[in-house]
Amino acid sequence: MAILSGLSAFPITPADQNGNVDIAALKRLVARLCTAGVDSIGLLGSTGTYMYLSREERRRAVEAAIKEVRGNTPVVVGVGAMRTDEAVRLAQDAKAAGAAAGLLAAVSYAPLTENEVFEHFSTVARESGLPIVIYDNPGTTHFRFTADLVERLAHVSGIVAIKNPTEKSEEIARHLAHQRSTAPRGFSIGYSGDWNAAEAMICGADTWYSVLAGILPDVCLRIVRAAQNGDAGEARRIDAGLAPIWELFKQFSSLRTVYTMADLLGVCQAEPPRPILPLPPAAKERVAQCLAVFEHDLA
């Protein structure tokens, strides 16, 4: 059985302008996810702005979130860093706090070769002892994992899963089938990119790594449970109803949009770390209108 499956919800990490995490607000976000019954929580992912936080603040966030979870829900922690030794230490911190796995991206200023990425991931997995999830996020890192590199990494001891991007929904089934055929048994194959993730789950992916679920978990769980139960029609119906939200994500970025949602829903008041700016008033009004339209469905 895959170590990760179902819905993995990725909340924001509320913090002040100096990068100090608002622990009380983070606990409220995590508590919402636990109450909803998500299958895992993705802390300090891209939505959790991990690269904008110091090691100490990342440690504080992880420890607080895992205490709030109380062992009832697996927590996957972003451990990406520019240097391999830093990523090892972050993974060790996450393991010491009780994380189930670490989410590792190929973060670098200089473009990386496949061998460099292989060594980076292998070293973090080996030296930290924390199960590692491959984070393929070319939109941010500008590094794309090839099928050959994924196959190599999937057979490294301690590398247990992958978080794939989704681009064209019609290509997901082929992509998933190929990864499934080259990865060892028990290797968890999941997808992000919320607007295509319903199709990924219908095709048989193990996990949906979801931004929207970090703030609106209930509706995302309905999609996942429908797909898991073989009801593709219901999963697609619910997903189609979220099309206006997916358009907001594409136009303004999911990160900026969910910060606005958290504020409008009264969950917490926080702004993304500079130089990222919050949405302007007109865009914020569009998010508010979208939430109002879906108020009953998203409750």
If you had to describe this structure to a student in words, what would you say it looks like?
- Helix content is 49%, strand content 12%.
- The longest helix is centred in the first third of the chain and has 15 residues.
- Strands 1-2-3-4-5-6-7-8 form an eight-stranded parallel beta barrel, surrounded by seven helices.
- The model has no long low-confidence stretch (mean pLDDT 96).
- It is globular, with a radius of gyration of 18 Å.
- The chain contains 13 helices and eight strands.
- α2 links the parallel β2 and β3.
- It has 299 residues and is an alpha/beta fold.
- The protein has one domain: TIM Barrel (Alpha-Beta Barrel).
- α11 crosses α12 and α12 crosses α13.
What are the salient characteristics of this protein?
TIM Barrel; alpha/beta; 299 residues; 13 helices
